[in-house]
Amino acid sequence: MAVQAVHIQGDAFLVCVTHSLSTEREEVMGLCIGEVNVNKAIIHQWVLCIVRLIVHIHSVIILRRSDKRKDRVEISPEQLSAATTENTHRLAEITGRPMRVVGWYHSHPHITVWPSHVDVRTQAMYQMMDVGFVGLIFSCFIEDKNTKTGRILYTCFQSVQAQKSSDLGHLDSITKIHNGSVFTKNLCGQMSAISGPLLQWLEDRLEQNQQRAQELQSEKEQLLQELKALG
Known about the structure:
The chain is an alpha/beta fold. It has helices spanning 10-20, 77-95, 117-129, 173-230; strands spanning 3-8, 29-43, 48-62, 100-109, 134-143, 150-157. 44% of the residues lie in helices and 28% in strands.
């Protein structure tokens, strides 16, 4: 069962952003502490039960990486166990609410906000223990090409089992329209990237040919005048 929404407190979000901006040489990570609410909607007429999982993140824990490669973020079981016992219990006593580890976050310095295959595999392992476990990614040190200013992108994701194309017939019309629009937008972007420079080259070439034609026409008229003078 997938999570429908993730709510994060402002203080926790600020810690995630600050931690992500602490270094641009390697990825950093931490754990998210909070609670998972299960909302059930029962329609008696059709005997239909709709279950919605909503994750609320109240705090985060900054962790040390167990894998020293700059493009890998993994934590040791000892850190995960300590976060589960000490920090969650302490936060539960303060708030009076059942707190636990509900997710993890890590940074993507200088790269896209979308999860890599390693991130998807790591998330899948966490979800084997808890279906409500979520992953957050903060893409930082990215420069906007138009404004030349830095920006931070963030997203939340979960892993799902790969489906065959024949299993996707249940998609609703809105999802199909959205997927079609994304495909069209990407296709137009690729065509623009290819045809734009080509069209500019053709326009420059046309201008050069027109200028050369004018020069040849002037040279022709000059030669005709010289021939007329000789005759």
